[in-house]
């Protein structure tokens, strides 16, 4: 199991002039919320953590069973332990069942195991009874819950949520938040969420990572961040003076 995630002096530069430069540690158990103004590098950091793209320099180190894995991007076994749930679900033109089962089939799981795990995940996502309909017929909220099922059914060690409730109605937002909260309580995984919703960050997270202009400005407990931020920049962000 991935016990700790270490981001060590990573840098990512783009032609636009934007650059990401940060370091931090995340441990299994608590949930970390990444917040900050638009364009601060939150989603870029998530893609790096999710092993979708590597940094230009620096290291992303996964600590697994006492060993340090410093080159995870080409390590298939580590990549299978990490799942990123994007802001908008990518749907295959298949049934809901087949969409959720996709990753399990890639991992060569047995037909019976796939059936059991997919149906359990759909029940957890409150999508039981929709397994045989085409995924493209789902509402946006249902599609996002299906994407969450597709991630959770793999039982990853590291769960990354990139704006999982953006543009969703209050009912679906509440359902997804309840699922994330329950998963945090029931498991001992590393969980990271990017959100623009400060109320959501406060309700779900144990620690807050506040970013601005590609850098981590603060990393503190959720209570400390929202009640007594360490920097003036964070205070202005929380009060809505800039976003």
Give an account of the 3D structure.
Helix 3 packs parallel to helix 5 and helix 4 crosses helix 5. The strands form two sheets. The protein has a six-stranded mixed beta sheet with strand order 6-7-8-3-9-10, with helices on both faces. Strands 2-1-4-5 form a four-stranded antiparallel beta sheet, covered by helices on one side. Strand 9 and strand 10 form a beta hairpin. The longest helix has 17 residues. 36% of the residues lie in helices and 26% in strands. It has nine helices and ten strands. The chain has a single domain, classed as Rossmann fold. The N and C termini lie far apart (36 Å). The chain has 243 residues and is of the alpha/beta class. It is globular, with a radius of gyration of 18 Å.
Compact overview of the structure:
The protein is of the alpha/beta class and about 240 residues long.
What is the total domain count?
Answer: 1
| Assembly state | single chain
Strand segment count: 10
Shape: globular
Topology:
Elements: E1 2-13, E2 19-27, E3 31-35, H1 42-49, E4 57-64, E5 67-69, H2 76-79, E6 82-85, H3 96-106, H4 111-124, H5 140-152, E7 158-162, H6 170-186, E8 190-194, H7 198-204, E9 207-212, E10 215-221, H8 222-227, H9 232-238
Parallel strand pairs: 3-8, 3-9, 6-7, 7-8
Antiparallel strand pairs: 1-2, 1-4, 4-5, 9-10
Helix pairs in contact: 3-4, 3-5, 4-5
Main attributes of the structure:
243 residues, alpha/beta, Rossmann fold, 6-stranded mixed β-sheet, 4-stranded antiparallel β-sheet
């Amino acid at each position: 199991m991935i016990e700790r995630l270490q981001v060590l002096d990573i840098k990512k530069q783009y032609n636009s002039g934007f650059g990401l430069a940060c370091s931090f540690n995340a441990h299994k158990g608590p949930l970390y919320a990444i917040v900050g103004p638009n364009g601060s590098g939150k989603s870029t950091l998530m893609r790096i953590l999710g092993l979708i793209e590597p940094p230009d320099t620096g290291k992303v180190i996964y600590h697994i069973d006492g060993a340090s894995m410093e080159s995870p991007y080409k390590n298939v076994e580590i990549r299978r332990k990490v799942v990123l749930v994007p802001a908008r679900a990518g749907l295959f033109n298949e049934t809901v069942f087949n969409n959720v089962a996709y990753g399990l089939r890639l991992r060569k799981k047995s037909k019976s195991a796939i059936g059991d795990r997919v149906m359990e995940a759909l029940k957890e996502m409150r999508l039981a009874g929709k397994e045989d309909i085409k995924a493209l017929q789902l509402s946006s909220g249902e599609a996002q819950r299906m994407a969450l099922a597709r991630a959770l059914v793999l039982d990853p060690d590291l769960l990354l949520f990139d704006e999982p409730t953006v543009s969703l109605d209050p009912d679906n937002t509440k359902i997804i938040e309840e699922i994330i909260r329950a998963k945090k309580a029931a498991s001992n995984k590393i969980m990271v969420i990017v959100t623009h919703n400060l109320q959501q960050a406060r309700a779900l997270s144990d620690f807050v990572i506040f970013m601005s202009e590609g850098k981590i400005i603060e990393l503190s407990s959720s209570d400390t961040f929202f009640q007594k931020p360490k920097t003036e920049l964070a205070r202005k962000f929380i009060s809505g003076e800039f976003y």
